[in-house]
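Minutes, project check-in
Item: structure for the 301-residue chain
Input as provided by the requester:
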Amino acid sequence: MRITSQIISQNFIRNLDDHLVRLNRYQEEISSGKRVNKPSDDPFDASRIIEIMHQLKLNDQYKRNIQDGLQRLNETENYLNDLQNLVTRSKDLAIQGANGTLSKDDLNGLSKEVNQILEQVASISNKKSFDEYIFGGTYGKVPFKIERDENGDITAVTGAGSVDGKIYRQIGTDKQTIVNIDNKDLFTGDQTVFDDLIQLRDALKEKGQGEAITDAIGNLKSRLDVLVDRISEIGVRINSIDDQKNMIDEENMTLKQFLGDIQDTDIAQTYVYYQQEQIAYQAALQAGGQLLQQSFVNFLR
């Protein structure tokens, strides 16, 4: 094959371009701190980087869902503890009213206190967490309707709609958790905490109806059992979500470490490569220049 001046020039330019491409890449890796800045730098690792970044974004969303779920569950637990204290106090008042030795005024005083407790319980039943009603299920509106007599006393509290729907939060790729409680036997059902308190209040007010007060004591004890179960359920869910959050944090650490291993530039090593490429580029310029000059002289001859 005959080597012409044109072939020499083309090879020279192509080799210089190759050196410049490598110099530019090393310079980009050093300035950006990343070994893979575009898919063409390393198609396989670029694909893995995209997958890792996608999973990290998903995990960030799961952690936001977890934080939201924990906020709601913690508020629910606090309100259930308040309810437990209120129901316990009501039971104590019922036991006082059942001893048969209290005067009408004493019983009336107990009735008034139970009525205040009823007001507090009714208020708690319609509490919100951010834009959602804590005990409203998926209903989306004020969950419990409060009915009053001409004196302003509560005569009934009933669900305004379907307040038993379950509310979920996605906390993992294939993992959901329920962030509300079952209202049955507490705020809904054949006998509710509202019914217990109305029954007790009215029995105390009506000169201490012994049998009705005794029934109220039994109902309030049952309601306390329900509350203990619900509070226990909330505690289990909070612990489970905390465990999931810790797992995601550990996974994120692993993913970020792996991401750094395949994406980050080894600055010291890359700088050495950059210097070597600069030397090779300068040498190519000198050698190519001499070769082209000699070819030009030969042409003149």
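Outcome recorded: Residues 52-256 form a domain with the f41 fragment of flagellin, N-terminal domain fold (CATH 1.20.1330.10).
No further action items on this chain.
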